[in-house]
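Complex record, two chains
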Amino acid sequence: MRERRSGRVCASLACAAALAALSGSPALALAETAAVLERSLEELTRMGLTRPPRDVEVSTAAKFRQSAASAPTPVYVVTAEDIRAFGYRTLGDILHGLPGLFVTDDHQYRYLGARGFGLPGDYNTRVLILIDGERVNESNYDSALVGSEFPLDVDLIERVEYVPGPGSAIYGNNAFFGVVNVFTKGGHAFDGGELALQLGSFNTRKARASYGKRFDSGLELLLSGTRYDRDGPRHPYYWDWGAPEREGGGEGLDYDRSTSLFGKIAYGPLTLEGGRFKRADGLALVYNGIIYDERDARFEDRRAYLIARYEDRIAPDWDLYLRLGYHRYDSAVIYLIPDDPAVSGGLTAGAGKDLTPARWWDGEIRLTHSGFDRHRWMVGAEWHNNHRLGVTFYQPPDTPYFDFGYRFHRYGLYLQDEIRLNDALTVLAGARHDVSPFGENTHPRLGLVWRPSEATTIKALYGTAFRAPSFFEQATTAIVLGETNDAIDLARTGLRPKTIETLQFGLEHFLTPSSRLAASVYRYRMDDLLSQGFDETSGDTYFVNLGKIEGRGLEVALEQRFDSGLRGTLSYSLQDSELKPGQRLPNSPRSMLKLHLSAPLWNPRWRLGAEALYLSERGTLAGDGVDAHLVGNVAIGGDLAKNANVSVGLYNIGDTRYADPVNPIFRVDAIDRDGFNVQFKLNLGF
Amino acid sequence: MARRWIAPARLMLLALGLGAAASWAETAEESELKAAYIYRFAQYTTWPDPPSGEVKFCSYGQPAIDEGLRKLQGRTVQNVPISVSRVDSPQAAKICHVLFLHVDRRGELAAWVAALALQPVLVVSDLPDAFREKAMIVFAVEPNRVTFRINLTQARASGLSLSGQMLKLAQEVR
């Protein structure tokens, strides 16, 4: 029998009643609005804007700070304020709320889909994710996942910028559908110590201690550590399809535990930033056809990085940016083969593990010249030294049956010019040449921004982008092709970098000073799709070039602000991506509708955030599908005292039952998502 | 199938009602907010020759903020009354205590900042380019906030001293 999926605390109707009681509260008294000029500097920094601003500052679209209106693509910005208002718990929650993006969850990892493309089993290699400009996509799988496995605590995020569209002309590999840049908070945002405690459904506990300060000398420091524990449902409901009912089985098997540390020191133009992250996630699924019901079976991810950055004006009109980073990434799947021939398929009982380590250096140098009124030139180079990449498979008892190590360099050189033809018209032209042992390629981008009036901006962008086959994809494909351990030639896998050609148009228009409309249409063509296959007999995965993909889509977002402080955004995305005419890709919702509302409650220190997220039906790999779904989340938060902040998040308030299409490796098409669940959070400042 | 949407839909409507019922909000117009910031910046600045008679607030460029600045007329900074005026050249701006600069052309912007580089004029701007050009304080607009960055080295070189409170609240201090 199916277990109840929800970490049920109150029935949704009871919750609704509680909310209704709140709304009728006499505490909804109007306080006197003090004139802006009477506000202290500190109060001004917390003041909202009555109307959507026209010139939000962004820096990811073209690698320099500019007004979002002058960027050649729409840029979506989510700030720490939004993260609090909507009770976002992961980067995935943040991105799932944006037009054109959607997140799929298989209870191991969370995968990002973009522009109608989210192949089950794909480790997100088609959106480049950055933390403060540094690539998060690691060097083994080229992947950056967005759930609790993302190495940064969301509480440390100051803002997230999402730039949809081809970005390889400045970012190179993986900037295929878009680029997400996550900016971390500085020490001044804490100005002292902070403790945060979270409790939630499925026995989830999270504790964070942070200290941040900007000293009078200008030195800025931030140190933060987070411990996260989620025991998971007592009986994982997504077991139905695979596992027989067993005595007390499944209890806490799908756990998720992580520890993360983050530190940042900035002084003048120099910043040093580093992090460590370790996560273990219980393997409560049928994987490779085998049911693992031991607590020791798990996915492990470890990550450590240290980055030094220098950014300053070095001569009149010349700006220099330098970045140097070192990264370690280790991923492991640890599984236990049971002593039961019916289940083990003849393999020796014991622990097996798949290890995929990566070690790399990377660096970037960039020079910008802005001496001419009409031109802003940029020349940059990026380099990666992947000095240790490996794929090692152990079978019990501790025998490596496959062990392959590799090292390689890759470089990229890019040029960009922003040309102001006149006050209303700007052209952004750029191209990047990338070199790796697996090939060379050049990707251009040409953007046009026309601002015919203060209220209207029209944008056009044409560009190509690429994603190279990752080391992991090449190595595992080599195995399936029967290459022997000591004589692997990755070139023989036949996997090639995939190119996408995109044309997009955008419009931003203020219908009234308080309502902003942003719309974009795009069309893309992928020369060849690289996707995961699954060898039924051996249980191995491999990667193949599937063929051409064509896609097109539309994204519309309307933002409205009211004098009461209520802000709302409604976005609609329509997307079609087809392998052949009429054949939609799996896990590709044709339409998505997202509504976000945030409003002050009985006083401005208390806010309510609500989101409603609709995804239309999606196909699964086996050709069945999952139903359309609508999920609503509500968060209420406010200040108890000056340094004490509380919030409650209610997720999937309607207890909607819905599922996501998943990786073929699970031998099941779709896995249910969490039902109604809650989270309480307390923040204390010192 | 439609039934499962009823509960979430009902709650969303309720949330909407809740929000609409609340009418207390801490929001301001962008230009109003920038003017208020400039007023506070002046209060937290010490000039090498403290203003006497009047504190001159000047602006060049964007008319939108002028309206906000005009509301400062009659107020005081360190007990000295504020006067607000528009200037049309860097030369004329040298007598200002505070200058708000909104120049879209980089060359012109650089010329203004360079001409005032060693003058005790608190130069404030709201263009991303102005921070690179070393204007002392530059606003950064976020979707629902206005924050600011400080070029402290530049302010110090001009003999201006900015209070710790300002440095603490800035988005970035260089």
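Note: Chain B touches chain A through 72 residues (CB under 8 Å).
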